[in-house]
Protein: Heparinase II/III-like protein
Amino acid sequence: MYQKIFEVNEAFTRRMMELQDMDPASKYYGGIIDPIMGVARPSHVGTPRIIAAWTASVLNADSDYYQSHALIERLEKASQYMLNQQHGDGTISLGATNYHSPPDTGFVVVGLSQIYLLLKKQSSGIYDQVRFDIKLFLERAIPALLTGGCHTPNHRWVITAALSFLNQIFPDEALVRRAKEWLAEGLDYTEDGEWTERSNGIYNAVNNIMLFHASRNLKIPELLEPVRRNLELMQYLVHPSGEVVTDYSGRQDFGKPSNLSNYYLIYRLMASVDQNPLFAYMADFAAEFAAEPGSVDSNAMVGHLLYPDLMVNDIERTPIPNHYVKIINQKYPRLEYLGKAAALGHQFKILHSAPHTAFGSPVVRYRKDNQSGTVMTNVPSFFSLRHGKLRILGTKISTSFSPGIVFFDEFEVREGGYRLRTVMEKGYNAPITRDLLEKLEKVEGRPWYLLPHEHREITHLQKHAIAVEVTPYQDRWSIHVKSDQLEEVFTQIIFILGEEGELNGEGVKQIQEQQYFLTGGKAVYSVGKEKIEISPGAHEHWLGTLREDVHPPGCIYLSINLMTPVDHTIEIKLT
Structure:
């Protein structure tokens, strides 16, 4: 593992030298140009990330750049860039958004604190300028983190970790008090180890590493409990290929290809802390996918150098299972909590964030050798499947009732399968009563938005129930879709397939590029030697896309068109 992490860091160090702005007249002087954005950025995935990689190289006796004066000069310029980019209030700006941002400053502080602690251990004076500049940056950041707020759930633990590091370097009880104010909100995880944002591709790993640091620095061992639970859960949330399940994420990794590489460091550290064979195996597995160092706060090579006592490699390995059915959050009291939230003042509107009401929703993970399936609730797709290299990225149902994509909010285990159900409602708004109107301020040509709509009565309330039963068999899956008896609701079952495959079949009719009907019979979708058959199709209406549904590019869409009442069973055969 060390050799892989070392080689990745070494190659990255070399490559990033070409991108450093060396023009003294440039506002980005010393910064490393982002190859996508074309400018340098002071965020945790910008110049500080490269500072971490370069520091790990100049301090590592195995590196070609060990004690390299040329690279140290580059580090000095990069650290000066960071001081120049730091605002007077101690913050940095993310750049893509989030200006004068305490949480983004927190990410950087967590990373630069580790670098400072590494540099502090060095007896040679050649690192003095870099060490001085980084310490100055950290000291300037203290007021921002003592007073600053957050946007998202994970930001709380980022800021907590940052405060804990600052207290290590600049001991101050005020830093500890502020960290404990954040911790007093309570750690947001389910019994099974799911975090609020359900972000298996990004923010799980962020929460885990931040709470590891906070636990260690503040000497609060119980902060590691949710970390353990999430790391244990992740063994069920990775496909055989190493791809992480992102099909139900509440953040920007939703549906995006992702791997375990950003979990490497936390698995490595926790394997040692707990002497855990599963975590040791998962660290090995994660290292296989390392292609670049992580962000400044979780650079794996820095972790190796800073925590050599936790990098022992003699722990037994326990491989993850390749046959299982795991139901996640089956017992979580989500509806009870949602009922309590309805009484709060925020009405599910949280400034610059989201309420994440899908948190704690049931998820089923199914694995049988190279077959890996996911059944989900409260997200646009209710089913996805991997069969070797073949990918059903999602399966969704859209109707004209609401209109749009159906989100299933009921879940039950039934006869070897899983039943998802929802009841949609749609009514009409009655006039506002005269007594309420008379209380309103007189406004000429009263705008629609000045009316008290919350007091309108609902008339002609309609309900439409739809259920899906998803059942795995030996080499096939069954999807049974059944609605209530409400007639003439346009309905579509849509399979979202990886664009790398080929779609054929007598009943397959192209609507437009990458979008097809399955009008009858079966469709055959193949990637290399793997194939699936989807049948039977139907074409009870001609609409290509229903209102409020969207088909983002980069996928193949296969639609089965139905009219209610619906009672249709689809079989997916694996060959």
Q: What stands out?
A: The chain has two domains: 2-323, 380-426+464-574.
